[in-house]
């Protein structure tokens, strides 16, 4: 059974930092692209960041560029999202996705491999 488990969410003041982790089990994603998405209340899920399997090529949505960094440890089958200078508008449930298609600097998520989400709340 494939599982993606996010952790690291929480409540933080504006300007603060959080580091999210997504640990995969049941399947080796070390040769797969992976990404992060988020969904705020009343809004659709949106792309945040993605990485090819090497971790060298990454993509970000414009609103987080320069503040968020995606990284991965393939030996641990884990991806991370370092979030700095957080803003209230970053408040959302953050989800990781594995095995999607990374092409032309865009990431199309896989349908089958999603985590359960972790809540990030940024207070003003």
How would you describe this protein?
With 124 residues, the protein is mainly β. The protein is built from no helices and 11 strands. The protein has strands spanning 3-7, 10-13, 18-25, 33-39, 46-51, 58-60, 68-73, 78-83, 92-103, 106-108, 118-123. Strands 2, 4, 5, 6, 9, 10 and 11 form a 7-stranded mixed beta sheet that branches. Strands 1-3-8-7 form a 4-stranded antiparallel beta sheet, with no helix packed on it. The radius of gyration is 13 Å and the shape is globular. The N and C termini lie far apart (40 Å).
What is the fold's blueprint, element by element?
Layout: E1 3-7, E2 10-13, E3 18-25, E4 33-39, E5 46-51, E6 58-60, E7 68-73, E8 78-83, E9 92-103, E10 106-108, E11 118-123
Parallel strand pairs: 2-11
Antiparallel strand pairs: 1-3, 3-8, 4-5, 4-9, 5-6, 7-8, 9-10, 9-11
Structural class by secondary-structure content: mainly beta
Count, helices: 0
Model regions low in confidence, pLDDT < 50 over at least 5 residues: none
Radius of gyration: 13 Å
- Rounded mean pLDDT score: 97
Percentage of residues in DSSP E strands: over 45%
Estimated helix fraction: under 10%
Shape from CA axes? globular
SSE ordering:
EEEEEEEEEEE
Span between termini: 40 Å
Q: Can you count the beta strands?
A: 11
Question: For the report, how would you describe the main beta sheet?
Answer: 7 strands, mixed
């Amino acid at each position: 059974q494939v599982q993606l488990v996010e952790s690291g969410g929480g409540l933080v003041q504006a300007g603060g930092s959080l580091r999210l982790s997504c640990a995969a089990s049941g399947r080796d994603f070390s040769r797969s692209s992976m990404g992060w998405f988020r969904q705020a209340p009343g809004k659709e899920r949106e792309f945040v960041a993605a990485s090819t399997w090497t971790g060298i090529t990454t993509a970000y949505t414009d609103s987080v560029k320069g503040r968020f960094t995606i990284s991965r440890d393939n030996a641990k089958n884990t991806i991370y999202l370092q979030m700095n200078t957080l803003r209230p508008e970053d408040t959302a449930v953050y989800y990781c996705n594995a095995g999607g298609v990374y092409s032309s600097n865009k990431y199309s998520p896989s349908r089958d491999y999603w985590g359960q989400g972790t809540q990030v709340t940024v207070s003003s």
